[in-house]
């Protein structure tokens, strides 16, 4: 299925001490570099990868992907990055993932995109430890609804997805959640299982 990908790296990363999370180093490379590698291994590959970023834009530009700063002020959360993407192109299909999605199963995009192709507005990932609402595929035509949700004070991806024709897709693969320095250190010391 033809789609574009959006990597979310535009937040404040307060649980990571305010560091620009996409540029935090894991195994000698920025998290964003790992996320781009994981995404490039997917079948089908995206037609284009965009980076949602609000700081260090010159550094992010060096990754060779177009940048999408938030169109809303004051870092209102990951949905602002999604809105910026949909404002760019609302008529297509998007695969969305955070910059700490450094390990993806080989069938990640295929399975999420299949749900959108079957008529769902959105599909997100779940592993045996829980739901990962920021790992998702989005169908076309969602910009106006998302803009209204944000204008009404909504900030939660979970809350927005609750109003859509959405499905959670279960994976055996564990998706790392690298919100803290401790989580990053734990993954760094963990042997690769996949």
Describe the structure.
This protein is an alpha/beta fold and 194 residues long. It has a single domain (4-184), classed as Alpha-Beta Complex (Spore Coat Polysaccharide Biosynthesis Protein SpsA, Chain A), CATH 3.90.550. It has 7 helices and 8 strands; from the N terminus they run βββαβααβαββααβα. A hairpin with a 2-residue loop joins strand 6 and strand 7 (130-138). Helix 3 packs antiparallel against helix 5 (143-151). The longest helix has 11 residues, at 78-88. The chain is globular.
Question: Would you kindly provide a brief summary of this structure?
Answer:
With 194 residues, the protein is an alpha/beta fold.
- Which structural class best describes the helix and strand composition? alpha/beta
What name does the CATH topology carry? Spore Coat Polysaccharide Biosynthesis Protein SpsA, Chain A
Question: What is the ordering of alpha helices and beta strands?
Answer: EEEHEHHEHEEHHEH
For the largest sheet, list the strands in their spatial order: 4-1-5-7-6-8
The first-level CATH class is given as Alpha Beta
User: Number of helical segments?
Assistant: 7
Spatial gap, N to C terminus: 25 Å
Total strands: the figure is 8
Give Rg in angstroms. 16 Å
- Helical amount among residues, as a percent range? 25-40%
What does the average pLDDT come to?
Answer: 89
Percentage of residues in DSSP E strands: 15-25%
CATH-defined superfamily? Spore Coat Polysaccharide Biosynthesis Protein SpsA, Chain A
Task: Sum up the overall morphology in one term.
Answer: globular
